[in-house]
Amino acid sequence: MRIYSILFMLIAAVLQVNKSQAQIVSLGYKQQQKPMVQVSLNYPFILSAYSPFEFMVGVDYTTKNKAVPSGFVPQTTLHYYLVDSKRYNYLLAVGAGAGYMFDFNSNHENQIRISPHLYLEYSAILNLRVGYDVMFPNNRGYPFISIGIGGLHGFRHMKWM
């Protein structure tokens, strides 16, 4: 029940902001050796239907995972759109995120995380990210797949009355 109320509040917050002040939210499941819940909130500095890229600053949170570093990450993200048009019901982008992870596990230390990924969004509501998290200073990498509700990048093509 708690997850539904959080999701409702995130969607309500997104609907309250105007197009120029949009916030990109995602709530979902991340598989990285073990399953985790992932929540992301990003503020796009470039969010235009006419631009093939976007730059965002935000935070990412993943629940504890003893197999890999996980926790709270202030981050920056850059996406370049490969398929993006108001005629399609989906978009496809390549991207990379970078930030400092405050790890919540007792067996891992805080890390710098760089995450190149492929991003697919359907109907501006469902998203899929497939990528690889590289962690420094332990010089380890972890492949991941993330499935979520949100994303909302496709809303930049909507026309407001």
Brief characterization of the structure:
The chain has one helix and eight strands. With 161 residues, it is mainly β.
Describe the structure.
- It is a single chain.
- The chain has 161 residues and is mostly beta strands.
- Helix content is 9%, strand content 57%.
- The chain has one helix at residues 2-16; strands spanning 24-32, 34-44, 53-62, 71-83, 90-103, 111-122, 126-136, 140-150.
- It has an eight-stranded antiparallel β-barrel.
- The chain is elongated and about 50 Å long.
- Mean pLDDT is 83; it is low at 15-21.
Give the helix/strand layout.
Layout: H1 2-16, E1 24-32, E2 34-44, E3 53-62, E4 71-83, E5 90-103, E6 111-122, E7 126-136, E8 140-150
Antiparallel strand pairs: 1-2, 1-8, 2-3, 3-4, 4-5, 5-6, 6-7, 7-8
User: Into which percent range does the helicity of residues fall?
Assistant: under 10%
What is the residue-mean pLDDT, rounded to a whole number? Answer: 83
Major beta sheet summary: 8 strands, antiparallel, barrel
The ordered H/E elements are HEEEEEEEE
Strand sequence of the main sheet, in spatial order? 1-2-3-4-5-6-7-8
| Strand elements, count | 8
Structural class: mainly beta
Strand content: over 45%
Separate helix tally: 1
Detail the poorly predicted runs.
15-21
Alpha-carbon distance between the two ends: 35 Å
Shape: elongated
Radius of gyration: 16 Å
